[in-house]
Amino acid sequence: MIGKKGNLKVTFVHDLFFDVDSCGRLFCPGGLDEIYFDRFFDSGFHKVKIISRSNISTKSLSNYFQPDKFEFSKFKFSDYGELFSFSAFNALRIELKKSDLVVISMPSITGCYVAMLCAIIGIPYVVEVVGDGEAFKAKRFGTLFTLFLRAFMPSVIGRASGAIYVSKYLSTRFINTKRTLVSSNVNISTVIKRKKITRKLIDKDQINLAFVGALNKNKGFDVLLNSISILVKRHKISTIILHAVGGREDFDVRSVIDKLGIRSHVKTYGFLSKDQVMDLLKDMDIYAQPSLSEGLPRATLESMSVGLPVVATSLPGFREILSDYSLIAPGNSDDLAEKLIEFIFSAELCSYHSLRNTEKAGNFLYNRLHKKRCDFYSNFKI
């Protein structure tokens, strides 16, 4: 419990890159938006300080978080190696001591470092567990980072004063015996029930398949591209169009698309706003998320909230929200293509899973989850 009164400050620790301009304004192009932090403001805190990797912008940011509510750490770094210096230790030690609550997002290399620092100087912290660390495998030095997280995550989470998990699976894998909550980070304001689907997708002039997320191998985007090639060339489904929203590529996406000969079957959008994503999903026919690792997938739940049938991988996070029928083994383009074909050729299958997914998404409405998160953080202040 925090014993201070007045303007209360949360220090939030993450690994994502934040853009920071010369005026100190900040923005996260990686998808962490302002509404995420309402859990702190609506539970009685007044300001959020970010400790994370940064890109220093020489130009003024056109999009940025509210300056009166957010500030970035005075210690700015872009490489993890910069953390392991006396100047980093001293600068972060001073900032952490001025904080009323430290919240660490895990898995996070920066988070593990800050948790160690908190232990040394005797400052309690809370963790938000959004994954298991396997997502680092696809990154540069990914194997090393994954081994590091496997070794340290259990103790970092176990020593925390409290923990929020985005899935039940993570709460059983990384135990915290203090104050805990299972609550997804999804931001669904409403659910849309579609009319009963009576027309097979194969009979439509265009089959619209959606994907939202990083266009990288950890999200299975290479697998998805291969499956599109299989559908077009092997199964002669010439009307399918993949609508891919996101960035952060870790392979040459355009080159792979051209090599597979599916340029006319893939449309990429880059990063879109939340409203733009939801508007796009409403016009789609089916959604695919062939990830190799996930916590509780927000984009999948958002697609379910507009009544889309979904095909995803058999990871624990997906098993919590999707039927077994919708799941395939990770990393298999043939299995993904075959599962998509089953939906493409069956109106009954699409209709059943559309209704089923809409009803399931209703359990993840923002107002309901937000209240739980606010109640959780209210217990860490007076």
TrEMBL record:
Signal sequence region: none
Residue stretches spanning the membrane: 101-127, 147-166
InterPro entries named in the record: Glyco_trans_1 (IPR001296)
Entry keywords, A to Z: Membrane, Transmembrane, Transmembrane helix
Domain of life: Bacteria
Protein name: Glycosyl transferase family 1 domain-containing protein
GO terms for MF: glycosyltransferase activity
PANTHER family hit by this protein: GLYCOSYLTRANSFERASE (PTHR12526)
Pfam families hit by this protein: Glycos_transf_1 (PF00534)
Gene Ontology BP annotations: carbohydrate derivative metabolic process
Domain Glycosyl transferase family: 195-349
